[in-house]
Predict the 3D structure of the following.
Amino acid sequence: DADVTQTPRNRITKTGKRIMLECSQTKGHDRMYWYRQDPGLGLRLIYYSFDVKDINKGEISDGYSVSRQAQAKFSLSLESAIPNQTALYFCATSDHRNTEAFFGQGTRLTVV
Amino acid sequence: DAKTTQPNSMESNEEEPVHLPCNHSTISGTDYIHWYRQLPSQGPEYVIHGLTSNVNNRMASLAIAEDRKSSTLILHRATLRDAAVYYCILRDVTGANNLFFGTGTRLTVIP
């Protein structure tokens, strides 16, 4: 089983719809992250969480929200999807020492 | 957050060594130098990291300049499976300590 599992892997949704992307990890790490990647670009940080009661905005949090349901679960929501949120989304986890981050396989989201 | 500068792309012949450079002239004393790579259609994966001394692991070596303003990721024998985008990232051990990705270097390995 993968260390970091993202669901769904692919999703097409319509403008204005609410959508949730889910992430779970089996590493037992405290820290979890959501990133977005646009074609030809690096990853940009959307939100991060250092433990269940901690939520922090990243570089590009507008239009997104997150929920840390448990240590192992971190979900990303788009309250009202818009076409420029079409991108590849990655979840990641790391421990408090921040030596190595583990990434999921990504969720390809298309907003039409 | 301190920035890094990498070439957009590089090519290497299969089974030859590859030296991927990274400039980070504004690096602070608490910044670690991390390298990740992203293979096609996959999430990034950790390669190596270091602070001041050169580092070796099963995947690669990291050579850090004495003034720490630049570093080089060394793949000793490039294989076709090493074709990926390589990201050089500075990670501050204080504060939020997040990974901030630039656009990286796209490595093409020629058979």
In short: Chain A has a mean pLDDT of 93. The longest strand of chain A covers residues 43-51. Chain A touches chain B through 24 residues (CB under 8 Å). Chain A is about 0% helix and 55% strand.
